[in-house]
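sorry for the late reply, my laptop died twice this morning and i had to redo everyting from scratch. anyway the thing you sent over, i finally got around to it. pasting the sequence first so we're on the same page, its 294 residues, then the predicted structure underneath. double check i copied it right bc i was rushing
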Amino acid sequence: MRKTTFLIDSYIRPDEAFHFARKSLSKRFPDAAHDHDFYEVFLIESGQTSHWVNGDTQQLKPGHLTFVRPQDVHAFSADRANGCQIINVMFRVETAQHLTSRYADTIASAFFDSRARLPETHMLDAARFARAVHIARQLQTAPRTLARIEEFLLVLTNRVVDITGGDLQNAPRWFAEACSAAQSRSVFSKGAAGLIAVAGRSHEHVCRTCKTYTGMTPSEYINQVRIEHAAHLLRSDERAIEDVVADCGFDNSSYFYRLFRRQYGTTPRRYRLENQRDPFQLSDQVPRGGGARS
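ok and here's the structure:
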C-alpha cells in the first residue's frame, strides 16, 4: 500500500497544542496509508473497523484504545454493516517528549512511548471505556492549550489505562488487554476467575501466559492488584479495614492480612497510620522521604 505523511500544521494553528475529531470512518480503505509528524490517540466509540498498521490487520471494536506514534503507518476501513465511530486526538511530538521525560516512571517505553513493532492497544472494560469517552469529549470544546492536552494524557495513562507488573509490552494482545481490564474492581473482585473470564482463553492457557509475562499465577497477579487497591483505600479513605477487605473481593480477612503483610511488610492498620495524613490538622509526623519542618 502506498504511503503519505500527515502534518500536524495541517490541522492546528501554531498557538494550538492538539486537535480533536469525532467522526465516522469510511467503509473502504483509502488509496494510501499514512504516517505522521505527530502522535495520536484514538478510541473506537461504536461499530467496528479493520485497522491496517505496520503490515498487520487488526479488528477493532468499541472500547479499543490505541496510542499511535509518528512512525506507525496505518489506514482504516469501517465495517460495512455497522460502520465505525471514532474519537481521535492528535498532539505534538514536543508534548510526548516532555511527558515521557518528566514522568518516565509511568510513561517511558509504554503507551505512546512504546517501543514495540505495533502501537500499544488496550481493550477497556465498561467503566474505563465510559471514563475514556467522558474525558475525551471534554476536549471537544476545550481551549486547545498545552495544559489541557497534558491533563488529558496523564488522566488517560494513569486512571484509564493502568497495567500493573510484568513484561506486558511483548505479551500477546489478548493477555495485555485482560490485564488492563483486571485493574477494574468489577474484574479483580472476582479473583483469578475474573482475569480468566475477560481473557477469553482456557484456564491452562491463561496460567501459562500469565506465568511467562508476569512471573506470577493468575491468582498471584490478581491478588497483587487487589492489595494495591487496598493500599490506595487505606491511604485515602476512612472506611473500616473490614470494608476495605470486602471492597477488594476477599472473603477471608486472615488471608487478606497475610497477603498485605507480604506485599507491604506491615499490617493494614500500621500502613494506614504511617501513610494517611489529615489535611485539616497539622501533624508532628514527617512523611517518609521528607525533611524536618522548618
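The two ends are 65 Å apart (CA to CA).
thats about all i looked at so far, will dig more tmrw
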